[in-house]
Amino acid sequence: MSAVIVPYINTTDNVCSICFDNIPSTMIKTHCNHLFCSECITKAIDYNGKLCPICRNEFRLCDNFKECNLCSIIISIGVKNNKLQQCLMLMLFILILILILILIFIAYKIYNMRI
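Now predict its structure.
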C-alpha cells in the first residue's frame, strides 16, 4: 500500500496524529494507516528518520514513489541529509589538510634551526 493524498472531509477523523489539528485540505496517510499533516510528518522524518512517529514502523518507498507525497518527503529529506553529510566530510578533509600543512611548516622550522 502506498501513501496517498486523501481529500478533506469535515469529520473528526481528519486530525493530524502529531499536532491534533484538523488537516486543512490534504493529509498524508502512511503505510501503517496513520494520518499526518505534511508539516508534522516532514519534521518527524527529519528528526527520527524513516520511522512512523506513532507505531515506529519503517516507511518504505512505494512502487509509484514519484506520485506519493510521503515518499517525496522521505526522498527530499534524504537528499538534504546527504548534502549536509557531504559538506561535513569536506570540512573535515580541509581541516586535516590544514593540520598537515601546519605540521610540515613546524618540521621545516625545526629542521632549519638545527642547521
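Residues 6-11 have pLDDT under 50 and may be disordered.
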